[in-house]
Design a protein that fits this description.
One of its GO terms (molecular function) is 3'-5' exonuclease activity. The protein is of the alpha/beta class. It has 17 helices and 9 strands. The chain has 3 domains: 6-179, Ribonuclease H-like superfamily/Ribonuclease H (Nucleotidyltransferase, domain 5); 212-318, no CATH class; 343-415, Rossmann fold, CATH 3.40.50.10190. Helices cover 43% and strands 12% of the residues.
């Protein structure tokens, strides 16, 4: 085979099994292996699939990460260069090929010939070890490949590359017969622009996003009260599920910047918001343990010191019972409150069965509908940073997107 450089071991994580059901690649990795079986290069990136992420419990990819990742068309040129002059290798090659063909077909690039000339380590392992189980983990275990982080594209690609090297070295006769006669298509690839964007890799689980306040300019407050209504409206929606997603943090920063609000002014609004919650907590003359925890959770989300909770609770306890006109449009202890008749939309692969959640919600008098409108109360999502069409529509219309756990808590509250 002319211009043969070695092998390109590829692995992908996807939003689902079948491209025909609009499932897309969400992460891809390519590992180069030379003719001796040594790993010479590795490359990986998350991919924005422009839809919900499907089984997140399996692949562990968060929407907060992929929404800032490149789309497939932005890395297609890089992939072609990573494949050029190399035979593609993958564990369960038919699955990876199916999705890669579909992604490139969307760009009017036919990669079926190239992918048909690849090597499947799952089949190769079965030929070398009679009765070998199919999974990558089992194959790696059989040949002594350990220390692998499975269910990430790069981890699986590195594992498959090491597995491939062990199989070729351990049974050169069988491997050689399998590698012979591969179609000479590895160099016949189109040219596409490359290096358009930088790859975006997964963050370690322990790495947290910096607080959104860090992205606002810290200046001396202006004289007079700024118009805060737009910011407060976004803040109300963001705090319904008692977490601020990356999408919501972006929206808060955008509104603050659009209105020219400085960090000190935003912190002032956060203090006022916490104070309104403290007033609501004292409305019945007592503050429960749950209410105090809720205040502490909100304070943390807003970047306020924990001591601030004790301060506002003491001050509001001693304040007159008549509550002044609140600056916050909608404030409630515990976050999301649902009432019979509210319209709800569900999106994403939730931990509980969608049909079960729908039946429970409708049994409590909620309307579970399939599309988002201005009349929608909330969109409950498997991931509040979801990239699904429903979540996108909600953000355009200003409808809050809340986490599944918050939605379930609201359902439980309706039963009390």
């Amino acid at each position: 085979m002319r211009s043969f450089r070695g092998f390109a071991v590829v692995d992908i994580e996807t939003t689902g099994i079948l491209p025909g059901f609009r499932h897309r690649v969400a992460e891809i990795a390519v590992v180069h292996v030379d003719l001796t079986g040594e790993i010479t290069h590795e490359w990986s990136t998350l991919v924005n699939p422009d839809r919900d992420l499907g089984p997140q419990a399996i692949h562990g990819i968060r929407a907060a990460e992929v929404r800032r990742a490149p789309k497939f068309e932005q890395v297609a040129g890089d992939l072609l260069e990573l494949f050029r002059g190399r035979v593609v290798v993958a564990h369960n090659l038919p699955f990876d090929s199916m999705h890669l063909r579909a992604e490139f077909a969307r760009l009017a690039v036919d990669l079926s010939g190239y992918l048909s000339g690849g090597v499947c380590t799952m089949r190769l392992a079965g030929a070398v070890f009679s009765g070998m189980r199919r999974s990558l983990a089992e194959c790696c275990k059989a040949v002594g490949v350990d220390g692998v982080r499975f269910h990430t594209a790069l981890g699986d690609a590195l594992a498959a590359a090491r597995l491939f090297g062990r199989l070729v070295a351990g049974a050169p006769g069988i491997a050689s017969s399998r590698l012979q006669g591969l179609p000479d298509v590895h160099w016949d690839l189109p040219a596409m622009p490359g290096a358009l964007v930088k790859p975006v890799r997964r963050q370690a689980a322990a790495i947290a996003e910096p607080h959104f306040l860090a992205r606002l300019v810290d200046r001396v407050p202006r004289e007079g009260d700024p118009a805060m209504d737009a910011y407060l409206a976004v803040l109300d929606g963001a705090l319904l599920d008692r977490q601020i997603s990356v999408s919501e943090a972006d929206a808060l920063v955008e509104v603050a910047l659009d209105f020219g609000l400085h960090k000190a002014e935003v912190i002032k609004v956060h203090h006022a918001y916490l104070r309104d919650l403290a007033r609501a907590a004292w409305a019945d003359g007592r503050v429960s343990v749950e209410e105090r925890r809720d205040l502490e959770a909100v304070a943390d989300l807003l970047g306020l010191d924990a001591d601030e909770v004790e301060l506002v609770l003491r001050e509001e306890q001693a304040a007159p019972t008549q509550r002044p006109q609140a600056q916050v449009a909608e404030v409630s202890i515990g976050g999301l409150v649902l009432r019979p008749g509210d319209r709800i939309v569900l999106t994403g692969a939730m931990r509980r069965q969608r049909s079960e959640l729908k039946a429970e919600a409708e049994g409590l008098g909620l309307q579970v509908v399939s599309s988002v409108s201005k009349k929608t109360r909330v969109v409950a999502a498997a991931d509040p940073d979801s990239l699904s069409g429903k979540a996108k529509d909600a953000r355009l219309l200003g409808v809050p997107v809340v986490a599944e756990a918050a939605f379930i808590r609201a359902l439980e509250s309706m039963k009390e």
